[in-house]
Amino acid sequence: MTVEHGGDLRVEPWDRLVIATGARPKTQGIDIRGMGNVFTMNDLADARKIMDFLKQRRPRSIAVAGGGYIGLEAAEQFRSLGIDTTLVHRREDLHRSFEKEISDIIKDRLSRNGVGLILGRPLVGLEKRGEKVGVVLDSEMIEFDALLLTLGVEPNSDLAQDAGITLGVSRAVRVDEFMQTDAEGIYAAGDCATARMSVFGIEVHAPLALKANKQGLIAGMNIAGVREAFAGVMNTAITRVFDLGVARTGLSFDQAQKLGFEPEKVTVTSRDMARYYPGSSSLDSLVIVSKKDRRVLGAQLAGRPEAVKRIDVYATAIFCGMTIDQVFDLDLAYAPPFSPVYDPVLLAARVARKTK
To answer: Looking at residue 58, what is its pLDDT?
Structure first.
């Protein structure tokens, strides 16, 4: 293996190699070099650049391009600092991991907290406009003091591709359950590598923290001689948008349709604690169920941040192949400060049982 360090090239011998090159932000081919007020967010160094810019330039307006997790969290932080913040997204709904019903709740919370929304208009280019940046949307250009691109990430898989290693979905390095590539002695793990969705078996690129950490652990164990497989992912994720918590796991409705599950959605609005208990708040639950065999395929929640951690119950149910009827049979804990008598998970299952 040839390594460049400090401008020098040297050959490093190895018995096993782990490719853990992570992912990089997408820019949709837009050249942002030399634009000191246009940023991406990938690591702590990027965060420091943005913080320094905010302190030194004190921008009055910022656009965030992209409706995924990073974009939503960044928009919240900019607005919390008193900056006029606008979220720009190419679709009317937000990131595809959110169902429309949950996307609408998020958009409403953004608007109520003063975040402007420009939806259904893709970003097609940027222009320098003095101290400002011109964001080109279709044929219109809107000026902002700064722009953060959060258009998703792509695997840093160039090294693997150049070495002739097979790439998979989204150009991520294809690995088996033991984190091995198709090249002898070479493993890959983390945001540069593929994964399988547990139970469903489809190959995905899931640049999420827990998956990356687990894959690194599994790769190291197998290199050290302990044969252990990675169990896969459920694409379980959770985030906060102001005082709203949002969480999701499993298949989206579109994914479930493509896999032939004949899915149906069950939507329920309930309370996260006993209605009469101080601080009780609403919780929106969306559960995707297979009409064929009643299996739970996916779930999404929107409510108070501490309430949406219930997504872990759904992640467990999907991983174990449980039906919605078996979810209803669960003996979940009850006390007024924590849940209504029928926990929102059980209430959603109860409603779903009526659709038989």
So the answer is: 96
Residue corresponding to tokens 């002898």 = 184
Residue whose entry in the numeric block shows the structure tokens 């004190």: 58
Tell me the two tokens of residue 13: 């011998």
Tell me how far apart the alpha carbons of residues 164 and 161 are, in angstroms, rounded to a whole number. 5
Contact present, 174 and 19 (Cβ < 8 Å): no
Nearest to 110 by CA among 161, 72, 140, 153: 72
**Residues belonging to the chain:** 356
**Number of other CB atoms surrounding residue 115 within 10 Å:** 21
Instruction: Find the Cα–Cα–Cα–Cα dihedral 335, 340, 343, 349, rounded to 10°.
Output: 150
The band of 354, judged by pLDDT with boundaries at 50, 70 and 90, is confident
d(CA 329, CA 338): 19
CA distance readout (Å), 134 to 38, 43, 87, 149, 151: 10, 25, 15, 13, 17
- Pull the structure tokens for residue 272: 């996260």
Distance CA 311, CA 291 (A): 21
Q: Are 172 and 193 in contact (CB under 8 A)?
A: yes
Does 356 have pLDDT greater than 70?
Answer: no
Could you give the domains of the chain?
23-152 (3.50.50.60), 157-223 (3.50.50.60), 237-353 (3.50.50.60)
For strand 123-129 and strand 132-137, is the pairing parallel, antiparallel, or unpaired? antiparallel
pLDDT (0 to 100) of residue 139 = 80
Q: Give 76-135 pLDDT, tens digit per residue.
A: 999 999 999 999 999 999 988 999 999 999 999 999 999 999 999 989 999 999 999 999
Chain centroid, CA 19 distance in Å:
22
Q: Which residues contact 6 (CB under 8 A, 6 or more apart)?
A: none
